[in-house]
Structures are given as structure tokens and as C-alpha cells.
Amino acid sequence: MQYFVARRKFQQARKPYDVRDVIEQYSQGHLNMMVRIKELQRRLDHSLGKPAFFLSEKGLDKGYYTAGARLIRLEDKVSA
């Protein structure tokens, strides 16, 4: 009895994959990866500040407490 069960499981495992299923799984994985990347980018922008925002003009970032803004203020203090 166990032989027949094992043989059936083995044959099911050997079946070729359905292309549509593979593409759907790949798409879901890609979508999950893109969501995680966007969330990571949002968190980085929140903690460091957007690069274009605090590098364009040094006077505009005085009210923001991001790491990038604090670094610019520290550089201003050191150079002054």
C-alpha cells in the first residue's frame, strides 16, 4: 500500500509545470519584491530625506530633522 502511495506522489512530482502557473507565481513574487523595495525606499526617504530636497539649497532644510539635513547643518557649522 505504501508503495502505491509513494509511486503516485513521485509521479505527481515529476509532472511538468503548467506555464501559466509558473508565470503567475513569478508575477506574484515580482510584485511582492517591488512592494518591499518601495517600502524600503519610503523608509529611507523618511529617515535620510530626499536627496534632491536637502542638496539643492542648503537654506531650505533648516526645519527638517532628517539625517541628511542634520549632516548639511553640521557641515555648515564646521566650515563656518
Keywords:
mainly alpha
Describe this structure in words.
The protein starts with a helix and ends with a helix. The radius of gyration is 27 Å and the shape is rod-shaped. It has four helices and no strands. The chain has one domain. It has 80 residues and is mainly alpha-helical. It is a multi-pass membrane protein.
Short description:
The chain is mainly α and 80 residues long.
What structural category do the secondary elements indicate?
mainly alpha
Shape: rod-shaped
Number of separate structural domains: 1
Sketch the major β-sheet. Answer: none
Note the total helix count.
4
End-to-end separation: 85 Å
Binned strand content? under 5%
Helix proportion range? over 70%
**Low-confidence residue ranges:** none
Total number of beta strands:
0
Task: Report the order of strands and helices.
Answer: HHHH
**Whole-angstrom Rg:** 27 Å
Mean pLDDT: 79
What does the secondary structure layout of this molecule look like, with pairings?
Layout: H1 2-14, H2 19-48, H3 51-56, H4 67-79
